[in-house]
């Protein structure tokens, strides 16, 4: 298991520890000889925390099993993904509290998400896959409006869009270049994909994965050699590797 995945799992275990401590405190309070005030709300909180603790612990065990075995347990997969999405904001806060950068926690979440998706061995038809690309991949000086139609690109080769469009044509998948979450959501609403391959920074990828749930999203981080949101880069080899995982090969248009 890659160290990146371990961070999310370690923080989840830490979260479980905190919930467990809270449970012990509440149990001690409820069992005190004097009649506790707010007895009923405390019992409700106790039950909710106990369910959360069980969900976190069970999900942790299942995630570790899935990631090591490389096989998903279809009935449990959805529940585990739901728990991961639910606890993610807590994990993020916990990371902040422990002085772990937000980027690191988000990267770990993306790795876990991709690992779970890979274990599902989900393969869709080319037209069922949507590639979402961030606008910042386009060269800043390029005058062509590719957010309206990516194929407005003149294929000059000055930015990664050129090679990515060749992949889109070769694999027969759909593609949109988006400037943010609103356009991405709109593209998903209109194109109704069964699976998304999203390229973005840590923050946009995590929010995209969470917003799109239960729609599966494979996350691919872009490189930012000039800082955020400016002339970013993604390797077409990495995009192709993701396509090989997600798209049924026999349906790929090999004539292009
Ligand atoms: S490859 Fe396309 S999008 Fe990129 S700079 Fe050239 S014309 Fe513009």
- The number of helices is 8
Q: Please tell me what the overall shape is.
A: elongated
Q: Per DSSP, what share of the residues sits in E-state strands of 2 or more residues? A: 5-15%
Ranges with pLDDT <50 over ≥5 residues? none
Average pLDDT across residues? Answer: 91
CATH secondary-structure class of the largest domain: Alpha Beta
What is the helical fraction, as a range of percent?
55-70%
**Compute the gyration radius: what is it?**
22 Å
Key structural traits:
single chain, alpha/beta, 4 strands, Rossmann fold, four-stranded parallel sheet, 256 residues, 8 helices, binds iron/sulfur cluster
Describe the overall structure:
The chain is built from eight helices and four strands. It has helices spanning 3-30, 39-69, 74-97, 102-120, 161-171, 181-191, 202-212, 236-246; strands at residues 129-134, 174-178, 195-200, 217-221. The radius of gyration is 22 Å and the shape is elongated. It starts with a helix and ends in a 10-residue tail after the last helix.
Task: Describe how the helices and strands are arranged.
Layout: H1 3-30, H2 39-69, H3 74-97, H4 102-120, E1 129-134, H5 161-171, E2 174-178, H6 181-191, E3 195-200, H7 202-212, E4 217-221, H8 236-246
Parallel strand pairs: 1-2, 1-3, 3-4
Bound molecules: iron/sulfur cluster (SF4).
Iron/sulfur cluster is lined by residues 138-139, 142, 144, 146, 153-159, 161-162.
Short description:
With 256 residues, the chain is α/β, with parallel strands linked by helices.
């Amino acid at each position: 298991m890659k160290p990146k995945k371990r961070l999310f799992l370690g923080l989840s275990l830490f979260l479980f520890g905190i919930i467990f401590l809270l449970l012990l405190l509440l149990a001690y309070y409820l069992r005190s000889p004097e009649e506790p005030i707010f007895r009923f709300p405390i019992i409700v909180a106790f039950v909710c925390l106990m369910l959360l603790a069980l969900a976190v612990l069970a999900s942790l065990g299942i995630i570790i099993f899935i990631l090591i075995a490389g096989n998903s347990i279809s009935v449990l997969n959805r529940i585990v993904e739901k728990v991961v999405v639910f606890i993610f904001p807590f994990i993020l806060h916990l990371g902040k509290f422990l002085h772990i950068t937000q980027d690191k926690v988000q990267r770990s979440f993306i790795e876990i998400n991709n690992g779970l998706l890979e274990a599902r061995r989900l393969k869709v038809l080319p037209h069922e896959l949507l590639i979402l690309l961030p606008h910042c991949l386009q060269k800043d000086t390029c005058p062509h409006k590719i957010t309206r139609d990516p194929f407005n690109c003149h294929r000059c080769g000055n930015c990664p869009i050129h090679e990515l469009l060749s992949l889109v044509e070769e694999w027969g998948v759909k593609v949109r270049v988006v400037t943010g979450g609103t356009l991405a959501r709109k593209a998903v609403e209109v194109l109704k994909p069964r699976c998304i391959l999203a390229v973005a920074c840590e923050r946009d990828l995590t929010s995209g994965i969470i917003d799109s749930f239960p729609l599966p999203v494979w996350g691919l981080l872009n490189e930012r050699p000039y800082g955020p949101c400016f002339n970013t880069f993604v390797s077409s080899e990495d995009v192709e590797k993701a396509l090989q995982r997600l798209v049924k090969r026999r349906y790929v248009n090999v004539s292009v």
